[in-house]
């Protein structure tokens, strides 16, 4: 009976391992991720091989006692299911820590002193560098995908540049349409746009709770934005359905050759990739960084600062005390 029970336990352990392997491969499907699984399995095997005779004798006694108290198949099945779930969750946590897909995987809610540039891993792509920004309200961190704060980076670029991304994550940059598409495709995302006319004005915010884009075949069209909130005007919802345009794939507008990439066909009331010219400089209408009548000065004046950031939508449900 003891030998039979040992065989059953051995088969159960093999079954658990195979189920964990299947769950992990299905979830992550990446050779790098499998390295963690192999390392973990090897460490566990070494631990088993290095057990002392005393530990082995203790295990034997435990099995003998188990023979005296029969365990039903239902109990064993429940135990196996619980073990698989716990180990799978553990592997998932470790994988997210080693291969983060969003800044929410890097900065815990409530941590406000670790804003910096980090690498995110998109399956099948080279890791990308982004700026991670803590949420001052205690929610999950934001992944900054676009920022304008100086004139050192040219945003009047072509389709190939906007697809790949450009600039410096520590200052002005854009993560790239291809990377942005994959970042928001893994799970429902919300979008936050923070803008400021100049250093003497308060920041204004536009929030959208479900940000969805089409793929490159659809020219990264703006598909969905969800519910709007914030103290800025909503000047993006009207662009739903429009394809992304660059200077070599333009729609029609005044100064269309200088306004940078954006979702537009005509003269949209929001363009965040125009010429960087803070409000103290007057420039030709419609070619600066504009968000409708963000300023009473009109379209001839440009924003001094703006950034766009995303995070998984579920993060809004987290309530963490600072």
Automatic annotation (TrEMBL):
One GO cellular component, as annotated: extracellular space
Keyword field: Signal
Signal peptide: 1-27
Alphabetical list of Pfam families matching this protein: Fibrinogen_C
SUPFAM superfamilies: Fibrinogen C-terminal domain-like
Entry annotated with the keyword Signal: yes
Residue span, Fibrinogen C-terminal domain: 94-314
Name of the protein in question: (Mediterranean fruit fly) hypothetical protein
């Amino acid at each position: 009976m003891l030998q039979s029970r040992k065989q059953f336990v051995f088969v159960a352990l093999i079954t658990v391992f195979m189920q964990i392997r299947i769950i992990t491969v299905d979830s992550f499907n990446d050779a790098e991720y499998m390295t963690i699984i192999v390392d973990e399995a090897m460490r566990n095997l070494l631990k088993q091989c290095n057990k002392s005779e005393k530990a082995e004798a203790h295990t034997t006694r435990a099995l003998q006692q188990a023979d005296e108290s029969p365990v039903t198949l239902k109990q064993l099945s429940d135990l196996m299911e619980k073990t698989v779930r716990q180990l799978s969750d553990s592997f998932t946590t470790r994988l997210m820590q080693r291969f983060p897909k969003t800044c929410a995987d890097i900065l815990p809610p409530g941590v406000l002193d670790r804003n910096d540039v980090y690498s995110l891993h998109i399956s099948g792509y080279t890791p990308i560098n982004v700026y991670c920004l803590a949420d001052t309200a205690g929610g999950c961190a934001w992944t900054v995908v676009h920022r304008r704060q100086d004139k050192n980076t040219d945003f009047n670029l072509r389709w190939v540049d906007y697809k790949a991304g450009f600039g410096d994550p520590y200052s002005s940059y854009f993560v790239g349409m291809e990377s942005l598409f994959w970042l928001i495709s893994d799970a429902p995302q919300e979008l936050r746009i923070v803008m400021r006319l100049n250093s003497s004005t308060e920041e204004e915010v536009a929030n959208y709770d479900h940000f969805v884009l089409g793929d490159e075949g659809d020219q990264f069209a703006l598909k969905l934005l969800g519910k709007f909130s914030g103290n800025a005007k909503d000047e993006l919802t009207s662009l739903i359905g429009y394809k992304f345009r660059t200077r070599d794939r333009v729609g029609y507008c005044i100064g269309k050759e200088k306004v940078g990439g954006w979702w537009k066909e005509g003269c949209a009331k929001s363009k965040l990739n125009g010429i960087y010219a803070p409000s103290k400089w007057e420039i030709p209408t419609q070619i600066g960084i504009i968000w409708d009548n963000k300023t009473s000065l009109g379209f001839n004046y440009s924003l001094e600062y703006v950034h766009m950031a995303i995070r998984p939508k579920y993060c809004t449900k987290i309530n963490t005390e600072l």
